[in-house]
Amino acid sequence: MCWHKFARYWDVEIREIPMEPGRLFMGPEQMLEAVDENTIGVVPTFGVTYTGNYEFPEPLQDALDKLQKTKGLDIDIHVDAASGGFLAPFCAPDIPWDFRLPRVKSISASGHKYGLAPLGCGWVVWRDKEALPEELIFNVDYLGGQVGTFAINFSRPAGQVISQYYEFMRLGREGYTKVQQAAYRVAQYIAREIEPLGPYEFICAGEEKGGIPAVCFRIREGEDPGYSLYDLSERLRLTGWQVPAFALSGKASDITVMRVMCRRGFEMDLAALFIRDFKAGIEFFKSHPSPKITPSMGTGFHHT
């Protein structure tokens, strides 16, 4: 949503790479088809909201390097690491997704997701001062001192920033590593437990080098277990679990997936209870066959 707002506010043409069956991420080939001499940047999502998988910037950079050699187009990368930015540095440090890649000029990350800070804390960092144009910074003479601001709004609460600083100081690199590794262990446990329970195809199984601590799966094509993932989501909601089932986007909109997110606070004891209720839901459908909830009907969950 933030990118659509940016494109509308600044009158920028946004070119999204649609998902399609067998390819649920932006690959180099699709990226090259979308860029031209007017492209101001490429934005891989390092932790895709729909699936939990990483879009790896390195293959995109390699393709852009070749493009510059052949056509002279010099296009940089912004990494949208809203989720992965506070995960990969601790659990998959060997993945080159950050400023180790020369074309990566800026990175955004959400402190309130896996940064463990309160809601509303977000970060953006640039490779160097040259990567942030001076004309975008407003220097304000405020109460006798110079204040440089890049934000659209001026006055903002500092509580989230202080909380983030507290977590940095309290946990440190070692603490963050332990917290995030625990989340991955929970996700992998859930994936192992769910796999034999139905004809499921896993898109994300909570692997550190592949994505965030999430479990995303679909019912295998051609299989009919007697219920839909919408049914299962609705059944889980009756026992207190909000586990969304939803259709993917683009050309993959006929694929319905279920996604389980794991983070601090969702520990092994809760995961075991979740699996218990998951199994109970499946047993319910076996003994109570009924018409399946369709994608157009969705589930009873909403945000209002």
From TrEMBL:
Keywords from the UniProt entry: Decarboxylase, Lyase, Pyridoxal phosphate
Signal sequence, renumbered to the chain: none
Pfam families: Pyridoxal_deC
InterPro entries registered for this protein in UniProt: Glutamate_decarboxylase (IPR010107), PyrdxlP-dep_de-COase (IPR002129), PyrdxlP-dep_Trfase (IPR015424), PyrdxlP-dep_Trfase_major (IPR015421), Pyridoxal-P_BS (IPR021115)
Cofactor: pyridoxal 5'-phosphate
Gene Ontology molecular function: any one: pyridoxal phosphate binding
GO biological process: L-glutamate catabolic process
General function of this protein: Converts glutamate to gamma-aminobutyrate (GABA), consuming one intracellular proton in the reaction. The gad system helps to maintain a near-neutral intracellular pH when cells are exposed to extremely acidic conditions. The ability to survive transit through the acidic conditions of the stomach is essential for successful colonization of the mammalian host by commensal and pathogenic bacteria.
UniProt family annotation: Belongs to the group II decarboxylase family.
Protein name as catalogued: Glutamate decarboxylase
Species this chain originates from: Brucella melitensis biotype 1 (strain ATCC 23456 / CCUG 17765 / NCTC 10094 / 16M)
